[in-house]
Design a protein that fits this description.
InterPro entries: ExsA-like_N, Homeodomain-like_sf, HTH-like, HTH_AraC. Helix 2 (116-123) runs antiparallel to helix 4 (137-154), helix 7 crosses helix 8 and helix 9 crosses helix 11 (248-259). The chain contains twelve helices and ten strands. The chain is globular. By secondary structure, the chain is α+β, with helices and mostly antiparallel strands. It folds into two domains: 3-162, Jelly Rolls, CATH 2.60.120.810; 173-270, Homeodomain-like (Arc Repressor Mutant, subunit A, Orthogonal Bundle). It has helices at residues 87-96, 116-123, 126-131, 137-154, 159-162, 173-180, 187-193, 198-209, 213-230, 236-239, 248-259, 263-270, and strands at 3-9, 12-17, 22-27, 31-38, 40-45, 48-53, 57-60, 65-71, 78-85, 110-111.
Length: 271
């Protein structure tokens, strides 16, 4: 099996992937703190692209559209340990630990590359994975609290995301879609993240764009792909997943249907 996940608690897991490439588009319901053991990950959000490699530690905030592309590298599998910082655990922590500064969602991935204290916190968990035992609940709670305290001591602004427990409210639909159209999410998820029911989302979308969400999303993604291939001189195989398509053949068919020529032909023209 290419993808294997081992849990030592519901909040702490080790994931290992040995295939060529694994892509997922997701909105995490919890903050995810990740320690990178081997391989490579590309994380794509609305305003930034991040690449992580062996030794990196990073925090992905919850309720943000995120494309995650995982690759094995240098003959090693893609291997990570991830800790879910759930709202319940964080609320319990901040009941007795006052947040520093203003609590607000910050639109970024936090990087804590090769931080010795965080590395030590994660490395101490490997023993439990190796022997296949469940981490006792009291120890698990201590490890999660340890990680939170290290994060706060490393970056004072991290309270702005960890201590914020608001759910998405109704926001400007056009602004949100223009920033996030490349994420291949369900319409239900787009509706939730803009603070709408699916019916209200469809109605509001029609008023703004005078077309369906599906048609608009496809056209926007194809135009973005065209820009990357022609202007940025990138290959179609490097682009199709980043702009929201699941496979190369579907992307090539849709591209040719829309523009009248295939992405490979455009790539030749751009040389």
């Amino acid at each position: 099996m290419d993808f294997i996940t081992h849990y030592i608690t519901p909040e702490i897991k080790l994931s290992e992937y040995n295939g060529k490439c694994f892509k997922t588009e997701v909105v995490f319901e919890h903050h995810i703190l990740v320690w990178f053991i081997s391989g490579e990950t590309k994380i794509i959000q609305a305003n930034a692209v991040y690449t992580f490699n062996e030794g990196d530690i990073f925090l992905i905030p919850r309720n943000q559209l995120t494309t995650v592309i995982n690759y094995p590298k240098d003959g090693k599998p893609h291997k990570t340990v991830a800790m879910h910082l759930t709202p319940a655990k964080l609320k319990e922590f901040y009941r007795v630990n006052k947040p520093v500064g203003i609590s607000q969602p910050l639109q970024k991935v936090y990087r804590f590359t090769k931080h010795p204290l965080l590395e030590s916190c994660f490395a101490s968990l490997i023993y439990y994975f190796d022997i296949g035992e469940t981490l006792p609940s009291d120890i698990a709670e201590l490890k999660i609290e340890e990680a939170i305290r290290i994060l706060r001591s490393t970056d004072k602004s991290v309270d702005g995301i960890l201590a914020n427990f608001e759910e998405p409210g109704k926001i400007n639909l056009s602004d949100f879609m223009e920033r996030n159209y490349m994420f291949n999410m369900t319409l239900d998820r787009f509706a939730y993240l803009t603070g709408r029911s699916l019916a209200t989302y469809r109605r509001d979308f029609k008023k703004i764009y005078n077309t369906t969400p599906q048609k608009w999303l496809t056209e926007k993604r194809l135009k973005l792909a065209h820009y990357h291939i022609f202007e940025k001189k990138r290959k179609p195989v490097e682009v199709y997943m980043e702009v929201g398509f699941e496979n190369l053949s579907h992307f090539s068919y849709a591209f040719k249907s829309y523009f009248g020529y295939g992405p490979n032909m455009l790539a030749l023209k751009s040389i």
